[in-house]
Design goal:
Radius of gyration: 20 Å
Number of strands: 0
Shape: elongated
Helix content: over 70%
Number of helices: 11
């Protein structure tokens, strides 16, 4: 952050430096100064790649989901090949209960990055909310294939199997969830190698 602050004293109209300084501030949990820098970057260069995304992410971290969603959509318009804006916007829409909008965003994210785990998991959540359990099962299986330790996906699979009356598969997934939680607990406690 100090190096970027020095750079901006020499070149106050350097939009990229403003963007990077905003990212540095946000990483230091200085969200308000980060937002200020992202806005400066956009004032200097309104089409600067990733500036709307980072501004949206900062708004999201403050709980301002309306502003976050607007910025994610702006990033998508300017930078349609950037995956993260899709799944983050989809997550906001899903949290608001806008299943159609969330589903479209997650699907577009998957088109941009087919192995995109957050978008696939988000789409599975939309499908579960719509009662399309078998389609959700396929997405969740893809998620755990790509990331075997995805606890939420294993838990969602267990619940889906319960709903479909597939008790043995549900029990298997619940055991996986328990093991993953236990492993995480051991790692946090510093006894990861103990059985």
């Amino acid at each position: 952050a100090r190096s970027l602050e020095s750079c901006l004293r020499l070149e106050p109209r350097n939009a990229q430096a403003c963007l990077l300084l905003g990212r540095a501030y946000h990483n230091l949990n200085r969200t308000l100064p980060a937002i200020e820098q992202f806005k400066k970057a956009l004032a200097l260069s309104p089409r600067l790649p990733l500036a709307h995304y980072h501004l949206g992410y900062a708004y999201q971290s403050q709980g301002d989901l309306t502003s976050a969603l607007q910025e994610f959509h702006r990033e998508i318009e300017l930078n349609p090949g950037f995956y993260d804006a899709y799944w983050l916007a989809g997550t906001v829409e899903l949290g608001r209960g806008n299943l159609d909008a969330a589903g479209k965003l997650f699907r577009r994210g998957i088109e941009v990055r087919p192995p995109g785990i957050p978008a696939r998991y988000g789409l599975a959540r939309v499908l579960l909310a719509r009662g399309r359990t078998q389609e959700a099962e396929a997405e969740l299986n893809r998620v755990v294939e790509l990331k075997p330790d995805h606890v939420e996906a294993h838990y969602a699979l267990a619940r889906a199997y319960q709903q479909m009356g597939r008790r043995e598969e549900a029990d298997r997934e619940f055991r996986i969830v328990a093991e993953l939680h236990a492993r995480e607990g051991r790692q946090r406690s510093g006894i990861a190698g103990r059985q």
